[in-house]
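Appendix B, example 12.
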Amino acid sequence: EVQLQASGGGLVQAGGSLRLSCTASAFTFDDYAIGWFRQSPGKEPEGIARFASTDSSIVYADSVKGRFTISTDNFKTTVYLQMNSLKPEDTAVYFCASVEGDPEYIRTMNPLRSHDYNSWGPGTQVTVSS
């Protein structure tokens, strides 16, 4: 099973930027999806972005569209989340998650639903001050 590690969180003022990284140990299959989620205290995890290797498709939640950008490195072992124009409501613990193997599943999965992923890494705290 792939091991994931998110990093890059920190404290930033509103309007600032951060770049999160999600490093994957190794994917066994060529087809995989990596999603970014965040969770604030007392709230359900919110899916905010997803990259799928099957068709290189990217999906964003409306809450981050136009401000956040997901990308991968050339070796597809690290997925980045560039976060610009940060707002206090972006404060949360950010996680990356993955699922791999069946390309049909990856094409038809709900890209921003946490239950559709089966590997999770420890989160990284992002705090945006007003």
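The chain has a mean pLDDT of 93. The first strand starts at residue 4 and ends at 7.
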